[in-house]
Amino acid sequence: MRMFTQEIKNIIYITLSFITFSFYALEHSKSLPLYSEKAAAQKVTGRIEKEKESKLIIMIFVVGIIILSSFLLFKIIKPFEFFWAFFSAIFSISLLGGIIFVWYTEVTSGTIKKQEYIIQNKQDLDNFLAFLKKKNPKLFLNDAHFIPIGFVINALDIELKGIHVYEWQWINYDLTKDNELKGNFVVMFKKEDDHRVSSVLTVKEKNLRNEQSDYKFEIPANFNLKKYPFDHQQITILMQHPSYVGNIILVPAFDNYDSSRTPYPPISPSIQFNKWYVKNAYFFYTLTDYFSNFGVTGWAQEKDFPILSYTIEVQRSIADPLISTLAPLFIILFIVFCMLLIQPKIDIRKSANSILGLFASVFFATVVSHQTFDQTIITGELVYFKCFYYLTYFIILITAINFLLLIYFKNISILEYRKNLIMRLLYWPLTTLILFIITIIYFY
Question: Is the peptide bond before 429 cis (omega within 30 degrees of 0)?
Fold first, then answer.
């Protein structure tokens, strides 16, 4: 009874230490600044990364507490074999829970890049222009033109080869200041062989000339698939006036949208995404810093000139990839584990051919699943989910080697102990530990 009480006290002490550490980590992550101190610039900093790191530390601490607490029950749980089976299960489940927590953190975290001047409303725009006037006063001379523009994205086809955008766009010219300018804004870095303007409309009203057009174009995807299927992707549309030599600054026409109809006004409320959903969308500015004036003396856009862009942050729907990829691999790993479970019940030397045939079958199934995955995700980089296949190959290999040693050698004590008990106990902890390490490497 005294021994039991001491073990319970140890678990309580560790739990209290964990709670104290958790509160410290959470408070530390809350105190991190979201924006830099540049007036009105609203530069996004690394708070998202810091919060993820704090959550990672807490998660690792929780997993460690659970594993250590279960190990402290060594003197309580009898018999000896049952304790190690219990510890193996707790170890594996804890690491699996840590992996799922990392997935959840990645899915729910944001993806805003650093050093972007986010413009989400008219107030942000005014603040940015005030900041820009101090940073580059030459832009605000008499020849400066601030042209309001707008667009509505009616369809968006997201593919790895390219992103097809269908939008209705417009530009507003003040006839008292911008009468000599003409033409709608253009999208930079689009594929020149796949864009068209199907209709053009010009509307004049008092001192305003409004030019509208139906625009379809394709921009490169440039997706980073390393974390597939937990990847966040950014679709960025860079805009520029056709008269790129002049001092013409495009500004979002926020008063042209009804923000009560949709959380992201330029995106049509009726738009549907295939296997994606929008997490965020916003205008932003980047400041130029070219190393050349491209032969134009006094070119206004050479340095600290604002380029207007619009970014759509999308998150992949993970349900289908999780089921189609992980379910077959889990079944394969479970079949291999079942072979270890039934091994003490059979004469493996008499069943050697059947055992090797079963290993060949599960290996072939893994290869077929791997090829199907490669046809779905065509990329030259080693994506996260592809590591699951390599891990499965490794587990099949070491289990097959284990059986071969049992078949051809009789006096290996570590394998003969309790009819290969050590291999059965290490199977899931080794698998989940490798997955846990791979997950941490990829996501942090």
Answer: no
Distance from C-alpha of 93 to C-alpha of 72, rounded to nearest angstrom: 17
Whether the Cβ atoms of residue 124 and residue 43 lie closer than 8 Å to each other: no
Tokens of 64: 């460690």
Task: Render pLDDT for 224-245 as a digit per residue (tens, 0 to 9).
Answer: 889 998 988 888 899 888 877 7
Please confirm whether the linkage preceding 229 is cis (ω < 30° from 0). yes
Contact, 420 vs 402, CB < 8 A? Answer: yes
The parent domain of residue 134 ranges over 117-316
Q: What is the pTM of this model?
A: 0.78
- The least confident of 87-96, 178-187, 208-217 is 178-187
Of 252, 282, 316, the last residue of a domain is 316
Phi, psi (deg, nearest 5) at residue 416? -75, -15
How many structural domains is the chain composed of? 3
Give the pairing of strands 303-316 and 276-289: antiparallel
Q: Are residues 80 and 160 in the same domain?
A: no
CA distance 164 to 167: 10
pLDDT tens for 416-432 read: 777 888 899 999 999 99
